Amino acid sequence: xxxxxxxxxxxxxxxxxxxxxxxxxxxxxxxxxxxxxxxxxxxxxxxxxxxxxxxxxxxxxxxxxxxxxxxxxxxxxxxxxxxxxxxxxxxxxxxxxxxxxxxxxxxxxxxxxxxxxxxxxxxxxxxxxxxxxxxxxxxxxxxxxxxxxxxxxxxxxxxxxxxxxxxxxxxxxxxxxxxxxxxxxxxxxxxxxxxxxxxxxxxxxxxxxxxxxxxxxxxxxxxxxxxxxxxxxxxxxxxxxxxxxxxxxxxxxxxxxxxxxxxxxxxxxxxxxxxxxx
Length: 278
Description:
Layout: H1 10-22, H2 25-32, H3 36-50, E1 55-58, E2 61-64, H4 66-90, E3 100-105, H5 107-124, E4 129-132, H6 140-145, E5 151-155, E6 166-177, E7 187-188, H7 190-193, H8 210-217, H9 231-239, E8 245-248, H10 249-255, E9 262-266, E10 272-277
Parallel strand pairs: 3-4, 3-5, 7-9
Antiparallel strand pairs: 1-2, 5-10, 6-8, 6-9, 6-10
Helix pairs in contact: 1-2, 1-3, 1-4, 2-3
């Protein structure tokens, strides 16, 4: 009859290891904080379960059988693997860890977090890896609770008590235009912005950004002639056409160092946004 792990109380195996290493039921009982009868009963149960003799009494000593010697090597090795796995989960030692962290960030989060995080990891946790997960507007909170994400940097949205949330900074949305766009003032009202032909982001996160939500409510954002998922592609189109786009101001200021974009401030409170760490 094949023996299945489901038929064995794993506590019996742990007691077996202690008795084997102690070579004494008394010492094993002290080590396990159990009574001697409890340890003896555990060995009897294990013997019946395996239908094998693991220890013999000789001159008031308890000696392992050859089967017990072989069994100990296998079981001890397996328990070490389990304990090491539990240790890796419960204790994070940066310099020794080979863990992969799954992180999701918005575009401005990419520019804020990773340029500082990667050099830090190279110095203090060289074997830790980062997997940048694309956002999916599918229960963002559940992605963290399920362990699909360890960390998320995103715009403000409500979460339950099980998710730790920390406000990082306030930002705003700005209009960006390229060299081919007709001249616009450096500051626009929301009504003036509504007359500008925009490239849509197609991000699906309008409900988290007040300005984009306002566009959607007014049938402007959702009815764009062109909608692009990748914000870098959006900016490339802005640079090479007479279309404009709205992007976070921090992001806009960073990319204008590398792309010929003009930033136009929006003077309405609806253009503000908050970036948080989850």
